[in-house]
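One chain shown below:
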Amino acid sequence: MDGKDKQILDMIKGNARMSYQEIGDALGMTRVAAKMRIDKLEKAGIIRGYNTYIKRDNEITMLIDIITTPEGFERVLEYVATRTVDVRQIYTTLKANHIHLVAVSDSPDDIKYMAKIIQKACKDDFEEYHVRQVREIIKDVYGGIKYEHRSESGAVTDNREDNRRQDS
């Protein structure tokens, strides 16, 4: 992967619907060359797919962190991967026996119930279990949410250069 490939990834990360022509024009190459590069990135598994982010105002995001016993790690991982419809992402980390889940639902009752069911079904394999509901998403490059600087009062501020000069 070279610099042009990285530029392509940066562009489509913000807008996966860009045409090959738009990508080619932005990078000084033909649309055919842009398509060939994207095909290569897809075949290599660097681009795994394209998603549509649908904003729902009533969506609730929950983060679940689980530390399992060494013997229970695979059982818990298999359970949360196959029996939890509201789980969008599952990560394992470099911390031993750590599983991190991101669950999303439009029903507070459903997502709380799912967290209780995981705890009940897997409790013998847990060393730690922590559930946290997300209050606000500050930045999500895949969901089109950009970070905006906030003042100490919590108000979103414009972080352009001309405003920074006024604060000095």
